[in-house]
């Protein structure tokens, strides 16, 4: 009989307990004259679902200091902050936020002084929305101000980043000050990632961009789980990151520019009852390889000075100190590493005592060199640094190049893709020899004169010896056979090549650079005794140094899609280059012959050329701009694998820029507009030429064919017209194989037209071109019928 009364009393007790809690967590509109206070029960305002909170968060490393922030209410505060009004402003206990009676939102410190106000008056109410957006609204419900309009380092689903808006990374996971990286949505429509200086924000360089240039575009976080670039008309331009399997209904999602410079698309289960791990998981990111993407002549690079960039087992960036170094601040790795030994001092008698060299494979510190040597083997490269008091490390590429590095070292990168060997100078706990200063002071004049006379005699003898050795070495060089300008190149005599080509009797090609002859070397060890010997014309002795440097660079290139340089000859004013022989001739003769090449073979040729150019531009230790990409300079081996020829030669043949420009005008149709505008020449001139050639390969016709109708004469104009009209089948007359692969055809044409943009910065890089061609990156097809889009990716 007593049980109902007990139940009623228990219910009253529960209501009494829960009422204050509910009152401290309002979930509806926030009315005027409402406030929250740091450190008190009423310290935040919740969204209706309870997912997001606007309020005070204690700092991870100091619970007596607070930030006003928007954060995920159901997750640990310190790791889920998504917005701060003033990230450099920390607040003490009893700081408060007030929505005043006249409709202003005011942040006040513990003394009551205002420290932030979004400058909005007459707001009717405020609200923390379930989207993560905190708003001040009028009585009609329109937003007078919203946190989404001033993001910090994170964007959320339904949020957009408009023209000239930016995200700036925090300095460290527990330091919310402005960091070293930012993303900017530029008003020209390009999304650009910048490496910036702390604390001024000076932009050192950009390290990734979308290369999309449609003015007034927006970066939009689609509610379906994609971060897209969207045109002013709402059309999809490109997808930056995407999550295909995690819905926003079951998972929180955010896009954040992290302290290491990577923009990551994270997901987190809203509930772990299904067994999912309760943690943030990166599902997509840009750039994919920040260690390689960011190298800059200013600043430290991804990691701090004297440290190097790599990845941990989960694929996240891991900065490390080399042996002999330790962190300046282990919790602030961006500050870099300090040597755990005294930096060498240049004092009399210093050689290598007190120091040793530590060898680290696959490690490089680019851009910090102060001297370069060639040719030099790895052991000599190491010893050279040990004996130099200015040297912090030396880098060897293993094939003849050696660089001395200065303190502090920057842009460190370690990984299997880094084909370098680093020799680091560290202390070995030996004592450096001290200067015998007292002895020097006690020298007498006779002793000094005696030493001076001895030195004079020694110098005279040494000079005579060096002169004799110089004469002898000059004679030896004249007789030397097989001397190598590069580690993999053979020096031929003129008579050897004259004999190999039967007196230069079989001509197989001719161009602006010279004439090519077929030759035969019975001693050739590459399995193919046939060679192509190119006899350069108009060589001048003043170009000797440039010729040597270029041949050395070209001789170090090794790629499946580049014609291999085997050797050279430099006799007097005669300069000859020896290449592997390509039995199927040039792409021009194959492509424009009487029989149309198979579509699948043309696709492989396109991809091969793109890979070769990407290697020249982005993967060589010294980037090479070809300057004359055209079908005549692409050769085909016995398996019809495309190989680029003559890379670098057009550049080394020009004695000045004017002559190079004039030469390029001779190849009609392939020359980028900047050659004629006397602008600085970059690798984008090759991208333009590749775009022309890509159209020719797809359509199996030359760039200009005067026998066709007026509208079809110039291929790029005709292809552009057909593309915009969605009638690209008109470009493929009689090509049934290509017609069956219209999705790929449409993609190739889209890439070609992007390569042909007049502004060099609007063209993609060859790395981006290859991604687009292979379909690893989505590409919007403008003006195409719906059935095209369904067959592209």
From TrEMBL:
Residues 502-782 form the Protein kinase domain. It is found in: Membrane. It catalyses: L-threonyl-[protein] + ATP = O-phospho-L-threonyl-[protein] + ADP + H(+); L-seryl-[protein] + ATP = O-phospho-L-seryl-[protein] + ADP + H(+). Residues 27-149 form the Bulb-type lectin domain. It is a single-pass type I membrane protein. Residues 1-23 form the signal peptide. The chain crosses the membrane at residues 449-471. One of its GO terms (biological process) is response to other organism. GO terms for molecular function: ATP binding; carbohydrate binding; protein serine/threonine kinase activity. It comes from Vanilla planifolia (Vanilla). It holds the Pfam family Pkinase. Its EC number is 2.7.11.1. GO terms for cellular component: membrane. Belongs to the protein kinase superfamily. Ser/Thr protein kinase family. This is Receptor-like serine/threonine-protein kinase. Keywords: ATP-binding, Disulfide bond, EGF-like domain, Glycoprotein, Kinase, Lectin, Membrane, Nucleotide-binding, Receptor, Serine/threonine-protein kinase, Signal, Transferase, Transmembrane, Transmembrane helix.
């Amino acid at each position: 009989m007593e049980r109902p009364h007990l139940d009623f009393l228990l219910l009253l007790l529960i209501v009494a307990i829960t009422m204050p809690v509910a009152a401290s967590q309002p979930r509806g509109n926030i009315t005027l004259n409402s406030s929250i206070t740091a450190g008190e029960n009423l310290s935040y305002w919740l969204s209706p679902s309870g997912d997001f909170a606007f309020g005070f968060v204690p700092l991870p490393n100091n619970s007596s200091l607070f930030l006003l922030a928007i954060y995920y209410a159901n997750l640990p505060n310190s790791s889920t902050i998504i917005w701060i009004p003033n990230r450099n402003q920390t607040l003490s206990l009893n700081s408060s936020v007030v929505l005043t009676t006249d409709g202003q939102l005011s942040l006040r410190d513990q003394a009551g002084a205002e420290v932030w106000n979004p400058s909005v008056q007459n707001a009717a109410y405020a609200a923390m929305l379930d989207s993560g957006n905190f708003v001040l609204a009028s009585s009609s419900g329109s937003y007078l101000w919203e946190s989404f309009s001033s993001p910090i380092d994170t964007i959320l689903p339904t949020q957009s980043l408009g023209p000239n808006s930016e995200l700036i990374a925090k300095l460290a996971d527990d330091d919310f000050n402005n960091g070293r990286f930012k993303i900017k949505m530029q008003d020209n429509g390009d999304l650009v990632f910048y490496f910036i200086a702390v604390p001024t924000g000076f932009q050192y360089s950009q390290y990734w961009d979308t290369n999309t240039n449609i003015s007034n575009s927006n970066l939009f976080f689609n509610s379906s789980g994609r971060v897209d670039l969207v045109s002013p008309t709402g059309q999809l331009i490109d997808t930056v990151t995407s999550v295909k399997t995690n819905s926003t209904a079951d998972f929180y999602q955010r896009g954040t520019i992290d302290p290491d410079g990577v923009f990551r698309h994270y997901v987190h289960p809203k509930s772990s009852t299904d067994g999912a791990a309760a943690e943030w998981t990166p599902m997509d990111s840009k750039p994919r390889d920040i260690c390689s993407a960011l190298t800059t002549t200013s600043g430290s690079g991804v990691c701090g000075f004297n440290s190097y960039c790599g990845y941990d087992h989960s694929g996240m960036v891991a900065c490390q100190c080399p042996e002999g170094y330790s962190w300046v601040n282990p919790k602030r790795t961006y500050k870099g590493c300090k040597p755990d030994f005294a930096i060498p001092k240049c004092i009399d008698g210093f050689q290598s005592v007190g120091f040793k060299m530590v060898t680290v494979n696959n490690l490089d510190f680019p851009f910090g060199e102060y001297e370069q040597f060639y040719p030099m083997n790895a052991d000599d490269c190491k010893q050279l640094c040990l004996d130099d008091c200015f040297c912090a490390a030396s880098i060897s590429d293993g094939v003849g190049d050696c660089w001395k590095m200065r303190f502090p070292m920057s842009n460190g990168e370690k990984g299997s893709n880094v084909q370098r060997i680093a020799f680091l100078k560290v202390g070995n706990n030996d004592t450096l020899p001290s200067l015998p200063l007292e002895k020097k002071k006690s020298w007498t004049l006779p002793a000094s004169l005696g030493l001076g006379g001895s030195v004079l005699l020694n110098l005279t003898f040494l000079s005579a010896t060096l002169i004799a050795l110089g004469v002898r070495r000059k004679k030896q060089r004249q007789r030397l056979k097989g001397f190598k300008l590069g580690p993999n190149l053979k020096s031929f005599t003129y008579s050897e090549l004259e004999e190999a080509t039967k007196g230069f009797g079989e001509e197989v090609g001719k161009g602006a650079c010279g004439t090519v002859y077929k030759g035969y070397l019975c001693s050739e060890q590459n399995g193919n005794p046939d060679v192509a010997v190119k006899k350069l014309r108009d060589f001048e002795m003043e170009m000797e140094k440039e010729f040597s440097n270029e041949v050395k660079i070209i001789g170090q290139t090794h790629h499946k899609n580049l014609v291999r340089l085997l050797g050279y000859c430099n006799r007097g004013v005669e300069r000859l280059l020896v290449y592997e022989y390509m039995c199927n001739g040039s792409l021009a003769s194959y492509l424009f012959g009487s029989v149309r090449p198979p579509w699948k073979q043309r696709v492989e040729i396109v991809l091969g050329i793109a890979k070769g150019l990407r290697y020249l531009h982005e993967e060589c230790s010294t980037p090479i701009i070809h300057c004359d990409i055209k079908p005549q300079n692409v050769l085909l081996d016995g398996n019809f694998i495309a190989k680029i020829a003559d890379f670098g030669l057009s550049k080394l043949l020009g004695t000045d820029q004017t002559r190079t420009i004039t030469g390029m005008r001779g190849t009609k149709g392939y020359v980028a507009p900047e050659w004629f505008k006397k602008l600085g020449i970059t690798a984008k001139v090759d991208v333009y030429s590749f775009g022309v050639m890509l159209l020719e390969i797809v359509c199996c016709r030359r760039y200009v064919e005067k026998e066709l109708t007026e509208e079809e004469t110039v291929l790029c104009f005709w292809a552009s017209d057909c593309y915009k009209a969605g009638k690209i089948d008109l470009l493929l007359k009689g090509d049934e194989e290509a017609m069956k692969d219209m999705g790929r055809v449409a993609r190739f044409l889209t890439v070609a037209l992007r390569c042909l943009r007049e502004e060099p910065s609007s063209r993609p890089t060859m790395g981006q071109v290859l991604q687009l061609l292979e379909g690893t990156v989505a590409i919007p097809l403008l003006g195409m019928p719906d059935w095209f889009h369904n067959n592209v990716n």
